[in-house]
Amino acid sequence: MAPPAAEGAPGASKLINPAPDSSPPKEIHAIRKSFTDTLSEMGITLVVLIDDLDRCLPPTTISTLEAIRLFLFLENTAFVIAADDTMIKHAVRKHFEGIENETLVTSYFDKLIQIPIRVPPLGTQEVRAYMMLLFVENSALSDADTEAIREKVCGQLQQTWRGQRVDRAFIETTYDPFPAELLGRFDTADRLAPLMVSASQIAGNPRLIKRFLNALSIRMAIARIHGVAVDEAVLAKLMLFERSGPSDAYEELIKVVNENEEGRPTFLADWEEKALAGQEFPLEGPWDVAFVREWLALQPQLADIDLRGALYVSREHAPLVTPEDRLSSGAAELLTGILENPDMAGAVRDQLEQLPPTETAVIMDRILASARQEQEWGTPPILDAALAVAAADPAAGVRFAGFLQERPPSQVTPSIVPKISGHSWTSQVYESWLAADVGGPVKRAIAQRTTAADGR
């Protein structure tokens, strides 16, 4: 029998390995010390910027926060996290799912974020400035001019607490001359800024505002291409409902607009009036939600507006059956040409006379939809288009006469009087205007035209 191996015999150390002097806490401490020593030797401060953490899924968010925890409280080190704290707390809540103690969520968040800095919500002034600067940035102005305008706007914003305003009047002083198209965009910013602030689904969020404006810009471009007259503020209000309102209510709105002869959601009138007045009122079915009450109080009021054009350019969400779908290709081409160049409509009168009454009725529908956007009735180009269709189809002429009689007396100017003379329906329009007590110059123009007609 072989004697036992002597203590310390060769190879014995290979059979029994001593326990390593290591553990996760010691390893973490070593990493922290090595990291601190490296920064100290380099003589720098490390600032780590983490943006859009709220866009990550909850597991990724928590993994990132846990990794940050390893380096907290180190010298010469700072982490700046830009995120929606509501979304971060949601991720923490998912991490502690099954534990009903909400204190854990708050405690975790508070221990991790040592200096919370909450960006205040944007007000109307800031949103208006932001929108105007977006339009400037996307214009043909040079980078140097754009930067100069931005500096002036930022300087004005710093004075808003003293009552200074950032509006179209101010922005026009920052550069001269602005392109006419850009001035029109500033008008849009003036009108939409309050909407972007007061709507809780946007609430002045710059990212949402930019996305909303991009979508609005695309739809307005579609409207221009198709010759559809659409008010941007009207379209914006509809898009807000489309984005945040109940889908059943939106479908009902589309149905009402389709079925109304003039494309007006008249059922909104009473609701809008009461919402604007701050009164309580009952809502039914899908309309009975808090968002709808807020939306009804936003300007502009839609009950008396033809929404067919706005819904037409929103067809990816609104299955609108438009009258144009019933036009022949020839009639559709005539309609497009008339809307793009209404003052040249007289040149296609012969072609209009060849169309069946059903198609001239549709064309007059679209002309009147565009004409309703006019605020002064002298001799706007759309008048030539309406007169050409009225001359081609007597029934369309009667409809146009009714439209003219509905114009507010303050919109009627003397120059329209001779323009519409000589038609079978002219006298009834004159009589209607006189009964509505139009201005003295219009009355004199009607008297002169009537006297001249009697002399013949």
| Range of helix content | 55-70%
Mean pLDDT: 80
In percent, how much strand structure appears in the residues? Answer: under 5%
Number of strands: 2
Kindly name the structural category. Answer: mainly alpha
Output the radius of gyration.
34 Å
What's the arrangement of strands in the largest beta sheet? Answer: 1-2
Query: Quaternary arrangement of the chains shown?
Result: single chain
What is the global morphology? elongated
Cα distance, first to last residue? 150 Å
What does the secondary structure layout of this molecule look like, with pairings?
Blueprint: H1 12-15, H2 24-42, E1 46-51, H3 58-69, E2 77-82, H4 85-95, H5 102-112, H6 124-137, H7 143-157, H8 168-171, H9 180-198, H10 206-226, H11 232-244, H12 247-259, H13 269-276, H14 290-296, H15 308-312, H16 329-340, H17 349-353, H18 357-371, H19 381-392, H20 394-405, H21 416-419, H22 426-435, H23 440-455
Parallel strand pairs: 1-2
Helix pairs in contact: 3-4, 4-5, 6-7, 6-9, 6-10, 9-11, 16-18, 18-19, 18-20, 19-20, 20-22
Overview of this protein structure:
- The model is unreliable at 317-325 (pLDDT under 50).
- The chain has 23 helices and 2 strands.
- The chain has helices spanning 12-15, 24-42, 58-69, 85-95, 102-112, 124-137, 143-157, 168-171, 180-198, 206-226, 232-244, 247-259, 269-276, 290-296, 308-312, 329-340, 349-353, 357-371, 381-392, 394-405, 416-419, 426-435, 440-455, and strands at 46-51, 77-82.
- The chain has a two-stranded parallel sheet.
- The longest helix is centred in the middle third of the chain and has 21 residues, at 206-226.
- 57% of the residues lie in helices and 3% in strands.
- α6 packs antiparallel against α9 (180-198).
- By secondary structure, it is mostly helical.
